[in-house]
C-alpha cells in the first residue's frame, strides 16, 4: 500500500479473521493444518498447491548481518532492568536465546533464531510505546 500497490490476499479479510478467532480450537487445526477450517472453506477458490502449503514466515533471512543487528538491538533493550518485555519473559531465557546455546525452536520450525530475536525486540518496543503493563 505504501508504494500505491494494492494486493488482495484471500486470508486477510478482517471478517474471516474475526469469525475464525472465535471457533473451537479443534476446527482451527482441521486436517492437522494451521488455519485448517479456513483452508477447507477456500477449497473451491484456491489451487491445492496454495491451499495446503506450509506457512512461510516473513522476514526469513539467514544473513549473518541480520542476526548480528537484531542481537545487538535486543541486547541494548535488555540493558534496561525495567524493559517491558521482562514482565512476561525471563531475562535468562532471552540471554540464552541471544547466545544461541540451545536449539529450542520458540515458535515451532518456522521461526528461526534471528526472527525470534526480532520478535522480542518488536514486542518490547510495542510494550514501551503503548505503556503496556501486565496485571497479575
Would you give an account of this structure?
The chain has 136 residues and is mainly alpha-helical. The chain folds into 2 domains: 10-51, no CATH class; 64-129, no CATH class. Helices cover 46% and strands 3% of the residues. It contains 7 helices and 1 strand; from the N terminus they run H-H-H-H-H-H-E-H. Helix 5 (64-78) packs parallel to helix 7 (113-129). The chain is extended.
| Biggest beta sheet summary | none
Q: Fraction of residues in helices?
A: 40-55%
Give the count of helical stretches: 7
What is the total number of structural domains? 2
What is the general shape? extended
For the secondary structure, the number of strands is 1
Percent range for β-strand residues:
under 5%
Weakly predicted, low-confidence segments: none
Order of helices and strands: HHHHHHEH
Distance between termini?
39 Å
As a whole number of angstroms, the C-alpha radius of gyration is 18 Å
Structural class: mainly alpha
Mean pLDDT: 84
